[in-house]
Known about the structure:
transmembrane, membrane, transmembrane helix, mainly alpha, 97% helix, rod-shaped
Amino acid sequence: MDTIPYFLTFLFLIFSIWIFLGLQKYQQTISKKNTFLEVEIEKERKNEAKLLAVSETISHLEKNTQQQFLKIRVGIVNLEFTLQEIL
């Protein structure tokens, strides 16, 4: 009868240690997953910044191209007008 409380205490101690170690392992796993997600989020932020820069560059090139086309059209109209005056 005297050994039952010691046995139960021993089992409780082993069970507590097992739960504690399991929790630590779980927390380490969660920590690794969080670190991985933080790295991925940072990569996505960098990609977003690059894409925004590319988008701005494309918009700038588009505006310049439109201005050049307008200059070419004006030049063509001037040539046609000058040609009509000559003829």
